[in-house]
Amino acid sequence: MNYPFDQIKLVIDPLSAFFILLISSIGFSGSIYSIGYLKPYLFQNRSINMHLFFYSQLLVFMILVVTVQNALAFLIVWEIMSLSSFFLIIFEDEKKEIIRAGINYLIQMHIGFLALLMGFVLLWIKSGSLDFNSFMQVLQSQKSFSNIIFLLFFIGFGMKAGFMPLHTWLPHAHPAAPSPVSGIMSGVMIKVGIYGILRMLYLTGQPSMFMSYLILSVSLLSGLLGVMYAIAQHDLKRLLAYHSVENIGIIGIGMGIGMLGMIYNNNVIIILGFAGSILHILNHALFKTLLFFGAGAVYNQTHTRNIEKLGGLIKSMPFTTAFFLIGSLSISGLPPFNGFISELLIYMGMFKSLAIPGFFLVFCSISSIAVLAFIGAMAVICFTKVFSVVFLGQARDNREGSEAGASMLIPMAVISFFCLLIGIFPQFIFGVIKSPVLFLSKFNTVPVEFISILNSLSKISSMLLLFSGITLLLFLTRQLLFRSRIKKNKVWGCGYQAVNKRMQYTASSFARGFLVLIKSLINYKITSDSPDGLFPDKGKVETHAEDIIEKYIISPVIKGLNRFFAFFKWIQSGNTQDYILYGLIFLILIITIIMGVR
Questions:
Q1: For residue 234, which of 502, 503, 506 has the smallest C-alpha distance?
Q2: DSSP readout, 298-328?
Q3: Which of 368, 396, 401, 478 could be disulfide-bonded to 311 (CB atoms 3.0-4.6 Å)?
Q4: Which of 243, 207, 291 is CA-nearest to residue 33?
Q5: How many CB atoms within 10 Å of residue 426?
Q6: Which of helix, strand or coil describes residue 8?
Q7: Contact (Cβ atoms closer than 8 angstroms) between residue 25 and residue 35
Q8: Beta carbons within 10 angstroms of residue 467's beta carbon
Q9: Highest mean pLDDT among 48-52, 247-251, 484-488
Q10: pLDDT value at position 1?
């Protein structure tokens, strides 16, 4: 059928195939994980049939989004994907905060949808077709027009991806959704937004300077503020949501570097930038899904996401602890785990760009290196805080829990294995990302620089394997030689041995020294109720970081809309006769307008 769609093409090219691999593999792991996670809801006589239906629908329509090549069909499947995820978010719809988070998500997704609709309408007017191939001719021949279109698509797709300042739905939606859904949304659904940007970049051909520096600057901002806000959070899943913003920023940095390489015709920078970006899409899908699954296991057993109320879970949840530690090391970009490799490629691309003459490019490259290094340092601080407070020490609120079931542990174990495998043998995973990298770079054959990078990764692999082997050997040697000699006794505590759960670091106190330094950037506030008297009863200290985008942009807009709609409250009188009168007036107006037109 040609009308109204024209011809609908479902195309699996290297870029689509890569995202289909992510969606299907992470989606399958989420399905297995859900068996154990949703079991307590069955004991509460809660129906999960519709939840499973929307979960399957989300996966199907994400695959359709990355394969369809017709604008109108794309918008339809994009909208169904957003609606499916909305119904998954509001699974616990009896809670007001869940409904509020879901509506917030749905409104923001429709704002992004309007930007996409405007972009596709303008392309349809110019090309006279809804097919993506016809868009390519228009975008490559009219550069000023392509900049306008790219900006519209960046707003639409960036809203889904979670780029700063289009990110404000993430910190609300992820804590509201069940953890398997949070893992899928963060692991692959927000990457569909990245797919959209990459697809438009491919259709545009040679990117403009405006596009390249826009993506690079927004990505640096996303990475920097995302990790800053993450450190200040007390809700475990909200913290992970801000780390999604951070890692989307890192993906965007690699994308921006690759685009700059295309502008300056430098094959090495092109490959390093796009390879780092594509590999980080894969890596983030793995370690962020792992972390959300770990957070879900903790919540499933302790019934809280508040980091301040947790502690000592390593004793009762050793496997979950180990898997969460692997995810923490991976997201922090530490060797020998997968996050280190993708960030290393991006670093290499930025260092290579320093050799290109031009003050502005060199300045941007140096700034990007500094910002990415700072992001990495803050990620280490954040996950040191999370892991030590949640899993080490003593339980702070008598929430010890028990180990998660096999259906939850097996997906975490498999993902942990791949996090380590990619980190130690990165040259083999390069075969998975090679096709989409060459596709985006528009290379017909594998360039020499690609082989050079593989050789570099092989050397890194050898060093990491040697490092891991030496570490394991030292650990086993220590266990064999000193196991019988080790005696456990309490250390001398200056004459005081009555240690209790209150005499340990909280999450807030651990990060306070750093957060005070950046408090003006993230609107970080400390309120305290100091103890009084010689024998004080109690004292209280609370810390809070308010999202500046939400405070200064989202909230004022909502308040303005509420004031505007308040003028029309008189319409809702509750009187049936009034409503009938409104209907009659409306019909009379419509008939009058039609008669006037005729």
A1: 506
A2: HHHHHS--BGGG---HHHH-HHHHHHHHHHH
A3: 396
A4: 291
A5: 25
A6: coil
A7: no
A8: 13
A9: 247-251
A10: 45
Whether the predicted pLDDT of 136 surpasses 70: yes
In terms of C-beta density within 10 A (0-12 exposed, 13-18 middle, 19 or more buried), how is residue 64 classed?
A: middle
Residue 235 pairs with which residues in a beta bridge?
306
Q: What is the DSSP letter of 398?
A: S
> What b/e sequence results for 169-191 when a residue is b if at least 16 CB atoms lie within 10 Å of its CB, and e otherwise?
bbbbbbbbbbbbbbbbbbbbbbb
User: What would the two tokens of residue 178 be?
Assistant: 């069940």
| pLDDT tens track for 142-151 | 888 889 999 9
pLDDT exceeding 70 applies to what percent of the chain?
93
Q: What are the structure tokens assigned to 175, written together?
A: 């804590």
**Domain range annotation of the chain:** 1-205, 225-479, 507-531+538-545, 548-597
Integer Cα distance of 210 and 150 in angstroms:
10
pLDDT, tens digit (0-9, with 9 covering 90-100), for 202-255: 999 888 898 999 999 999 999 999 999 999 898 999 999 999 999 999 999 999
For residue 235, the SS3 value is strand
Q: Are 154 and 197 in contact (CB under 8 A)?
A: yes
Rounded Cα gap, residues 72 and 393, in angstroms: 55
- For strand 540-545 and strand 524-529, is the pairing parallel, antiparallel, or unpaired? antiparallel
Contact 79, 116 (CB under 8 A): no
For residue 351, CA distances in Å to 272, 465, 578 come to 10, 25, 70
425 in Cβ contact with 335 (< 8 Å): no
Region of 45 on the Ramachandran plot (φ > 0 left; ψ -120 to 50 alpha; else beta) = left
Helices (H), 519-554: 519-522, 548-549
Cβ neighbors of 54 (< 8 A, separation 6 or more) are: 84, 85, 87, 88
Taking the C-alpha atoms of residue 427 and residue 459, their distance in angstroms, rounded to an integer, is 9
Task: Please list, in sequence order, all residues whose beta carbon lies within 8 angstroms of the beta carbon of residue 219, skipping any fewer than 6 positions away.
Answer: 163, 248, 249, 250, 251, 252, 253, 255, 256
440 HSE (CA, 13 A, CB side) = 34
Token pair belonging to 27? 């989606």
Q: Is the peptide bond before 175 cis (omega within 30 degrees of 0)?
A: no
Q: Mean pLDDT over all residues of the chain?
A: 87
Query: What pLDDT is recorded for position 244?
Result: 94
CA–centroid distance for 238 within its chain: 11
Give the bridge partners for 524, in sequence order.
Answer: 545
CA distance 534 to 353: 64
| Furthest C-alpha separation in the chain | 100
